[in-house]
Structure formats: structure tokens, C-alpha cells
Amino acid sequence: MLRRTGIAIAALVAAWANAALAQSSNDAEVLSSFQALAGKYEGVFSRTQFVVVRVQHQYVPQGAYVASAYEAKKVEYNVERTTSLVSPFVGTIDVTFQHSLDDRVCGNVRHAKPLKSIAGWATADEAVEEISKPECRTARSTFLDPVRFNFALQGGKWVLKSVVRTRYARPETMIQAAIQKESPDPQYTWVDVAPNRVWQTLLP
């Protein structure tokens, strides 16, 4: 009886060890796949990227196209195991962007009264052309804006779930529009131009 119990315990220990080894191997594969994804982000953000959207709200009722610059200063990532069977792992890629508060001096669409300042361009092509004209913006100041890209592992694949400005705990609407061709904010509309297509390469 004691011998059988010993054999049973040994078998249980062996099964536990095999399960732990399998889990460790799976963890390594998951981490490796997310590292590859993070490497793609590091490559794209090694140079300044631009997002072009159509903006329309009460001060620009006719709509205007604008280009915004995203200059990354730091890229970090993390992966965590969860208790969910649907999403057993989640991953985050944190990108710290440096933004400029600019006074627009180029454009042919103005804000409605009482602002009357330049809002942007009448066409997307004109907004794209502005990218190559740094003289069109006069930076008043700069600030750092941390942005988190949230992923979940579902069905063996990483899925982008949200893009959030972590400091303000709200969606980064322009980036989300560029990556997913839609924005959570109806004021911003995705347009099919070359700068935006670069962002779509960030999808897993």
C-alpha cells in the first residue's frame, strides 16, 4: 500500500513538472511573439510619423483636414498572464510621444467665429503636403504625451483592443483612426492617404 502511494505521488510530481515545463515553454512563446510585435513598433517609431484626419465640429462646421506629428521618445512593453480563458495573456506597448503646441500659419480653412484662426486644409492632399513644410508650424511649447496600446491574446493571436492617452485616461482618437480606419470620436474621420497607411502596419 505504501509502495503504491509512493508511485502515485511520484506520478503526480512528474505530471506537475511536465505541466509546469509546458506552461513555461508556452510563456516563452507568448513573450517572444509579443517582443516581435513591440519590435515592429520600435521600428516604425524610430522616425516621426504623421496622422491625417478630417475634423468637423461646431467651430469647423464645413470640415478641415489636418496633419499631426507624432515623435516617439521612448517605447516600452509588458506582458501579463490573466485568469481569463478567452484572453489568457494581455500585453501593453507604451510609447511616449513629444507633441508641439503649434500656431498654424498654413491652411485655407478657418474656424468659425469667434475664433477665425486657421483650422486646416480643404483637401487631404493639401494636408499631406504640409508635412514637408515645417515652416507651416510655429511651436509655442512642447509636452510629453504617454500613449498605451492595449492588446489581448485571443485564439493564439494578438488583438489590438484600445489606444489610450494614459495621462488623461481617454482614447487617443487620431491614432486609433489611423490604425483601425475608424475613430471613437465622431469629430475625426479617417482618410486614405500614405501617412495613415504606415500606422496600419502596426496591426498584429
Written account of the structure:
With about 200 residues, the chain is an alpha+beta fold. It has one domain (about 1-200). Helix content is about 30%, strand content about 40%. It contains four helices and nine strands. The chain has helices at about 1-45, 125-130, 175-180, 195-200, and strands at about 50-55, 60-80, 90-105, 110, 120, 135-155, 155-165, 170, 190. The chain has a seven-stranded antiparallel β-sheet. A two-stranded antiparallel sheet has the order 4-5. Helix 3 crosses helix 4 (about 195-200). The protein is elongated, with a radius of gyration of 24 Å.
Quick structural summary:
The protein has helices at residues 2-44, 124-130, 173-180, 194-200, and strands at residues 49-57, 60-81, 89-104, 109-110, 118-120, 137-154, 157-165, 170-171, 188-190. With 204 residues, it is an alpha+beta fold.
Write the layout of secondary structure elements.
Blueprint: H1 2-44, E1 49-57, E2 60-81, E3 89-104, E4 109-110, E5 118-120, H2 124-130, E6 137-154, E7 157-165, E8 170-171, H3 173-180, E9 188-190, H4 194-200
Antiparallel strand pairs: 1-2, 1-9, 2-3, 3-6, 4-5, 6-7, 7-8
Helix pairs in contact: 3-4
